[in-house]
Amino acid sequence: MALARKLFTALLPILAYVLLRAIHLTLREVRVGEAPVGPCILAFWHGEQQLLLGVRPALPLVAMTSASEDGRLQAKILKYFGIESVVGSSSRRGASALLALTRSLRAGKSGLMAVDGPRGPRHEAKAGVVQLARSTGLPIVAVRATTRSCWTLSSTWDAFQIPKPFARIEVRYLEPLWVGQGTTRKQIEKQRSTLNLRLGVDRET
Fold first, then answer.
1. Banded model confidence at residue 92, pLDDT cuts 50, 70, 90
2. Number of domains present in the structure of the chain
3. CA dihedral 96, 66, 113, 57 (to 10 degrees)
4. Less packed terminus of the chain by CB within 10 Å, N or C?
5. How far is CA 172 from CA 39, 51, 149, in A?
6. Is residue 80 part of a domain?
């Protein structure tokens, strides 16, 4: 029984990747706004990551995943998609993960961050992404990926969405948000509120 469980755990990321990749190949992207072509921090809501993963811009990406068992599974799946991961969150191993993420961004990669994590409240951006933008000098590019054709896991706190085959995905890129290195704590809060407003409009395609 233990061997079967270990085998299933080892195969699950591969099986998930194959299934998701097959779905992603059928997706139809409708792009609104200009996709970034240089290093940036892509900021999105939890729950939309699988929609975005299928139509993401062609950038070398690094994501922060949680230190939970689910987060480690996600990191393994992202690896198959060619996306680097650092394991941690604002509540577990956060400082070391943020440092590793900062190093990757300074080395030329772009960040992929669900900004209302790790456990919500849903659709409420945290200040961490603004602080990361301040320390790296990279702009924050808010992005929404929405569709009417998806499976929604209503039992999850973030209403996690998985696109259905041949779904039409609207990907909306907003204007870059720049954060100066001299930005104060009060200004960081203002920038966080601005990001929240940019991401906050729910759209369905």
1. low
2. 1
3. 110
4. N
5. 18, 12, 17
6. yes
Query: In the prediction, which pLDDT does 110 show?
Result: 96
Of the candidates 52, 87, 95, 56, the one whose C-alpha atom is nearest the C-alpha of residue 71 is: 87
Structure token pair of residue 60:
């070398």
| 205 belongs to a structural domain | no
Residue percentage of the chain with pLDDT more than 90: 68
In a domain, 204, yes or no: no
CA distance 113 to 129: 8
The token duo for 72 is 């480690």
Q: Give the model confidence (pLDDT) of 38-57 as tens digits.
A: 999 999 999 999 999 888 88
**What pLDDT is stored for residue 89 in this prediction?**
62
Would you say residue 204 has pLDDT above 50? no
Residue whose tokens read 């929240």: 196
Per the CB < 8 A criterion, the answer to whether 31 and 143 are in contact is: no
* SS3 of residue 182 by DSSP: coil
Which domain covers residue 136, as residue numbers? Answer: 2-199
Q: Can you say whether residue 137 is alpha, beta or left, with left for phi > 0 and alpha for psi between -120 and 50 degrees?
A: left
Bridge partner residues of 140 (DSSP): 41, 177
